[in-house]
Design brief:
By secondary structure, the protein is an alpha/beta fold. Helix content is 49%, strand content 11%. The strands form five sheets. A four-stranded parallel sheet has the order 7-6-10-13, sandwiched between helices. β11 and β12 form a beta hairpin. The termini are far apart.
Amino acid sequence: MEHEKQKIVSFYSSFQIYWLEILKKSFSITLNFAGDEIKAISQFILLDNRQGNGSFSFQTMNDFAKKLEEITKKEPFQDFFDLENKKKILKENYQEFNKVLKFLLSVQSVYFPYTKSGGGTIQISGDDKKWHEMKRNFKLNSVLEKLDFKIEDIAKWYKIFSDEAQKRLGIKRDDWIQLWKNIAWNEKDKLEGDTRLGIDYLQWAVMLKRIIEEDLQKEILDIDEISNIAPDDILKFEPKKMDQYGVLLRATRNKRYSDQDKNYYHDRYKRSFYLANDFGLDYQPRVMVFVEGKTEETIFSEIFEQYKNVKAENLGIEFVDIGGISKFFGQKISIKDSNGKYKKGFISNFNHLISYNLNKWQIIPFFIGDNENDINHLLQNGASISFNQNDYSLSKNWQYIWGVTNDNKPFQGKDFEMANFNDNEIATVLSGILPKQIKSTDVKTQRDQNKGIKQIDAQVENCKVCVAKKLIANLFDEYDKTQDETIFERPIFKAVDKIITLANRNHPPVDREIELKNKEYIETELKKE
């Protein structure tokens, strides 16, 4: 009340369904007419999903009111049939739920798009640039402090929503929840009843899982792995070390999704691929990006997460480390193409892989590399691609060559580091990693001679990945400090945008019409000069 005026704030959210369900069940009495007597059953459900039920029997419906009045005065039936007592307890519970509701409303604009993803694509209504900026600037601790909420509270509700989702989706075989997680959420509009409600609970659980993981900076147990685990223990368990707990689901999955020293459980695309085979479904990447080495494979995966807040594989983008351009191209041979003409130079070792994936699955090949040894020329004249029984060179729109595609702008350089970072940025990182001081003039000297970062110092070769990771990390730190959007105009981010555009344009073929449209687009690209 202020200046004799009262401001009433009201809102409605789907999150309130949980509380409405509690009220409906707690204030309902079910009558069972089977048997010689009529049986009245009533539940009492608390906010944390603890529940129980009481019952009593009577002969005819005329006896119901009298029997109900008697039973509400006796222990333990009061808890289930004394409505006034229920109201008192539920009112106290509602104060806690109101705090939970405010928390969910406070985070949904930032985190709910993650739970609206389908086929690995985040669906954001409106301006996605605003959402990405809002995501980068979001501070969870500030929200928790204002609402007197804790990370343990989030874990508690993560478990509650996970349990509710599995109960309503009828999960008997554990991996089915993983299948539900990977369908397009907008398909829920075609569902009804408990199944529709189960998807809502699943979405909320996915959202809370993401919040916890980003706050703790580590993976936590999945939705279908926490049924028999206390909320506080959700924060303590280390999923990567779960092999020692043989009775838990994660240990079983580690065995199923492991290949020697690799574990693909956290790789959403790879896990979806296994599930697709298991359930008789099908899933393929939309773009296969060929990179020259471990540096590019590592860096691009991290940039997708930091720049776009999404894993590349969730957009249908896979990276293939070809281990250097010499392994990408084979020996010089004399062989005729389908038109009876001799191929101009080399034939790619990956020719059959690329052509097969392009024809059968419409997986677009994209090449990223340093322009050493005139790779640009080799790609245009030697990387033959067969499509619809015709041979083509790699489309210029399907490649990003440092120093060529970006035309040596803003920085001169034929490799990833020189093309994307200035002299001072490179010198600062090298000085922090190498056991010697590197000056910006040292970098400039090599740049002016059109040399790469390896020519600055011989030791760079042994730490290229850590150098590249630090360069990128510094760039994002600079953005956090300055909010300078021009940082994202560098070639590396333009390459990412180009790949994402290709992936978005290459729709998963759910029918013949889309498949034909994909093939039409591919052929149009290949025919471009």
